[in-house]
Write a structure and sequence with these properties.
There is one protein chain. The protein is α+β, with helices and mostly antiparallel strands and about 250 residues long. The protein is about 25% helix and about 20% strand. The chain has four helices and twelve strands; from the N terminus they run H-H-E-E-E-H-E-E-E-E-E-E-E-E-E-H. The strands form two sheets. Strands 1, 2, 3, 4, 9, 10, 11 and 12 form an eight-stranded antiparallel β-sheet that branches. A four-stranded antiparallel β-sheet has the order 7-6-5-8. Strand 6 and strand 7 form a beta hairpin. The longest helix has about 35 residues. It is elongated and about 90 Å long. It starts with a helix and ends with a helix. It is a single-pass type II membrane protein. It catalyses: Cleavage of hydrophobic, N-terminal signal or leader sequences from secreted and periplasmic proteins. Belongs to the peptidase S26 family. Its EC number is 3.4.21.89. Keywords: Hydrolase, Membrane, Protease, Transmembrane, Transmembrane helix.
């Protein structure tokens, strides 16, 4: 009886048994770390920041097609939107053409779903738009004056971020005179002659205005490719005096 017990103890304490237990403990810890990392990534993506890619050339040269940006999702719920912010927003209705999601092999679809779940992929980027906020609720936005400038609440804007065709000084080929409704925004692309923004969506149900509730967040950095890495400025000096003029 004593001999059998001793044999079992010896086997349990053998080097191979200890290695097996160590391996199992390591795998268990690795699984726990992986699950925690996935959950933390999901929480960050859901409540704090997430990634989008730029699907068009409408924000050049600030943002180039296929750039990836990081978006602060605390805007506008916990932090206010400001003039000049580059915002990502859901289609207010009629801005984007209808499209069908391309079919994918099951394995690729599963990987894409997981990457989207943890915020490393943004398959819904084509369902969102990226523009710069020019008009806030109540603002009077007019274009263009004799110098080709746009004005907000009577204050002419000198916009260094705007990309224009060679030899062009007028910041919009389309003249307009609008007053932004409550809880809405007037947004425009930096690539002014190649951006279907608020100016060109007057025939949609919301007449080109973007509800503040449609804003997913404010883009604050270009994260990829590394050669395009940059903080995104909202150029407060451009809009200096606009809020005071509104009062």
């Amino acid at each position: 009886m004593t001999e059998d017990t001793s044999t079992r103890i010896d086997r349990a304490g053998s080097p191979s048994a200890r290695r097996k237990r160590s391996t199992l403990l390591f795998l268990r810890d690795l699984l726990v770390i992986f699950v925690v990392a996935v959950l933390v990534s999901f929480m960050i993506k859901t409540f704090l920041i997430r990634s989008f890619f730029i699907p068009s050339a409408s924000m050049e040269q600030t943002l180039v097609q296929d750039d990836r940006i990081i978006v602060n999702q605390l805007v506008p719920d916990l932090a206010p939107i400001e003039h000049g912010d580059v915002v990502v927003f859901k289609d207010p209705g009629g801005w984007l053409p209808a499209r069908e999601d391309p079919s994918q092999p099951p394995l690729i679809a599963a990987v894409d779903w997981f990457l989207a779940f943890v915020g490393l992929s943004a398959p819904d980027s084509n369902d969102h738009l990226v523009k710069r906020v020019i008009g806030m609720p109540g603002d009077h936005v007019v274009c263009c004056n004799a110098l080709g400038q746009m004005s907000v609440n009577g204050v002419p804007l000198d916009e260094p971020y705007v990309a224009l065709p060679p030899g062009t000084t007028k910041v919009s080929e389309l003249d307009f005179d609008v007053t932004v409704p409550d809880d809405s925004l007037w947004v425009m692309g930096d690539n002014r002659y190649n951006s279907k923004d608020s100016r060109y969506n007057g025939g949609t149900p919301l007449e080109g205005y973007v509800p503040v509730d449609n804003v997913v967040g404010r883009a604050f950095v270009v994260s990829w490719p590394i050669s395009h890495w940059a903080w995104l400025d909202n150029y407060p000096s451009v809009f200096e005096g606009v809020d005071e003029a509104a009062g």
